[in-house]
Amino acid sequence: MPRLTRRQLLKVAGAGAATMALAPLARFVRAEEKRAAAPGFTLPKLPYEYDALQPSISEEIMKLHHDTHHAAYVANLNKALEGQTDLLAMPVDDLLRHIDKVPEKAKQAVINNGGGHANHTFFWEVMAPKAGGEPKAELAKAIDSAFGSFDKFQQAFADAGMKRFGSGWAWLVPGKEKLEIISTANQDSPLLKGQTPLLGIDVWEHAYYLQYKAKRADYIAAWWKVVNWSNVADRYAKAKA
């Protein structure tokens, strides 16, 4: 076997050292790829900046609401369904629509945390900066038909939010013949009863207390200014189809 020169030995040694240095990085990349490929729910990014809904909803509330509360629902949902690969791979809306497929021991945790995840993902999307105003076209006609006028609808919807005792939501959903307003406790989603949410407001205290204190009515009044009626109209069109 031929003897290596000093230059060749240094070259071989350098290559070996580089390989050893890259080995931990390669293992980290493989671990991250494996984690990314694993089934499970993830926290969606807000469709706007934290301060985009001011003054209706403060930056401080949005950070707390999204980064802490919503993130906790996602983490707890994944924990509740640990090992349930098929369920972890389902869209969260489908998971709630088919809650009977969830093992009994995990069902309430999925109702609470799956509902929290679905409700908040929905909530971020039905709001937008520089929005508000009134619905248009078919959605406006449907609201007028169901409630008499947009003003009467706003009053009835706000009333549902105000009368929700403790924590919960007020929702606009399609009924059998016309649009309806319902209210649910905690993080219960209309999807659990086969209903499709079109608009919803979170009236848990964490959604408003830092800014409005005990004045839930003021929060609801300000919230109308950031309702994304375009998004609600798209949901209504899909529900009709």
Word description of this protein:
Strands 2-1-3 form a three-stranded antiparallel beta sheet, with helices on both faces. With 241 residues, the protein is mainly alpha-helical. The protein has ten helices and three strands. It is globular, with a radius of gyration of 25 Å.
Question: Which labels suit this protein?
Answer:
241 residues, mainly alpha, three-stranded antiparallel beta sheet, 3 strands, globular
Largest sheet: 3 strands, antiparallel
**How many angstroms separate the termini?**
78 Å
Strand content: 5-15%
Briefly note the structural class of the backbone.
mainly alpha
What's the shape?
Answer: globular
Rg, please?
25 Å
As a percent range, the share of helical residues equals 55-70%
What is the average per-residue confidence, as pLDDT, rounded to a whole number? Answer: 90
DSSP helix count? 10
